[in-house]
Amino acid sequence: MNPQVTTLGRSQSAALSTNKVVKNTYMLLSMTLAFSALTAGLSMSLNLPHPGLIITLVGYFGLLFLTSKFRDSGLGIAFVFALTGFMGYTLGPILNMYLSLPNGSQVVMMAMGGTAAIFLGLSAYVMTTRKDFSFMGGFLMVGILVAFLAGLGAIFFEMPGLSLAVSAMFVLLMSGLILYQTSEIIHGGETNYIMATVTLFVSIFNLFTSLLHLLGFANND
Questions:
Q1: Is 129 helix (H, G, I), strand (E, B) or coil?
Q2: Around 169, how many Cα atoms within 13 Å sit in the side-chain half-sphere?
Q3: Which end of the chain is more exposed for a tag (fewer CB within 10 A), N or C?
Q4: Whole-model pTM?
Q5: What is the CB neighbour count within 10 angstroms for residue 23?
Q6: CA torsion, points 189, 116, 58, 54, in degrees to nearest 10?
Q7: Is 65 within 8 Å of 19 (Cβ atoms)?
Q8: CB of 192 within 8 A of CB of 71?
Q9: What is the rounded distance in angstroms from the CA atom of residue 196 to the CA atom of residue 186?
Q10: SS (H, E, C) 147-198
Q11: Which residue range is the domain that position 174 belongs to?
């Protein structure tokens, strides 16, 4: 067998597989964003209370674990929607709080616009240049862990300054995670579209809430 033909066939197969992951990821991401927006809207309209830090963390990490465990089956998709729907529900009370403040609607719209611009801009950059950002993996993992622990410290010890610093860190880290995950998808480093969707969704969610916090502070809210 001609080795050049074999190599070409493998390259074409890899390209088709990557294109399928990209298509499925962004299709599922669009659906989960819409579903999360729906649950957030219901939470807001019903004026539901925020579940609190403990329930939020248990619900998030529990559903994330189940999504990862069943990522190669149909149950994985069900748990993706359960996870993103739950996150939408926790977002509803936060949005109601901001909307009740002076200039609250403007802050929310600016945060939404900023999140969309950052996500679309970074995704388009990676898709266009096809640069490999896999080198960022270790740094992002450590950075997110440090920021998460610092965020818990800011909550428990009531340190507004640290909380703002954590939000700024998350804006940078989530931007880096979007670059990293998009790069992994197009270069074949991530072949499971369910996990790729979860990573991008969490990046968008944390980016939005962090911008909301920073913009709210900038508007003295």
A1: helix
A2: 19
A3: N
A4: 0.91
A5: 11
A6: 140
A7: no
A8: yes
A9: 11
A10: HHHHHHHHHHCCCHHHHHHHHHHHHHHHHHHHHHHHHHHHCCCCCCHHHHHH
A11: 3-218
